[in-house]
Amino acid sequence: MTGLDATAGPLISFLDGDDAWHPDFIECHVRAHLSHTRIAAMSSSDEVVIDTAGNLLAGGHPVFHLNDPRSMPKMSGYLHVDTEADPTLLFIDRGTVGWFWSTTSGMMFRRAPLEIMRPSDPDEIRICADGYMARAAHMIGGTVRIGRALGSYRLHGGNGWADGRILGTGVGLGRMSPDTEIAIRRALANRWCEVAPGLEHLISRQSMRRTLVDLIGLSAAFALLEKNSDAGFLLKDWATPQRKLQTRLIGLLPPKLRPRRFRDIV
After folding, report:
1. Which of 122, 154, 186 corresponds to the end of one domain?
2. Which of 120, 154, 188 is the last residue of a domain?
3. Domain count, the chain
4. Could you read off the pLDDT of 199-245 as tens digits, one per residue?
5. Contact, 195 vs 202, CB < 8 A?
6. What is the per-residue DSSP string for 101-123?
């Protein structure tokens, strides 16, 4: 947030100290944001993986490719491909909250979404801050994925997120801890409720509510309504006795047997 406040440009990127940008990183990201086909609140590009000495370990970032939304059936109505662009651009509409990105060093943001969604308490997102910022920007204006590696992600064994040194199909390159994931989604939910009234002229209340419930889950949405007075703007009319009873009854089932929308994140 200190870095954000020290800048004035309309497009912002954060480079982690152990990563590197390739010479065409900024140019390709700016071109994606200035596309003549669609507009997105943030962009994310692929990254190669290197070791401590800079030796190439992989030509693409496993997480970026594992989470390609084109392989997710539920995403079909949210995707728009610009095949005329070089590299190819994949636009993902706002309204769904998955993980479609690489890492901090592969992202570029429009300034306004970051300023709108800046956390009330930045200490809440000191770990995996990109998990907050990417979702926050996407919740407001969607994402464009750039189909080319434009930077290097350094895997050196001391990474806070990707501390594994073994690469291969089926091997995870690090995962956010459950506590960190919960903290990030809680901070996002609270901020989303806080700014929602000021966004209603741009995004419908129904759409913002759907995004919130998708972010944290149904039971957590009822709990949020009880704890956070700002949540009433989005959830008061939604929280009917029938929906509350249904949510409570399904909550009695083992987690794996519950429909996805009833599996709380927070």
Report:
1. 154
2. 154
3. 2
4. 999 999 999 999 999 899 888 899 999 999 999 999 999 999 888 88
5. no
6. ---GGGEEEEHHHHHHH--SSGG
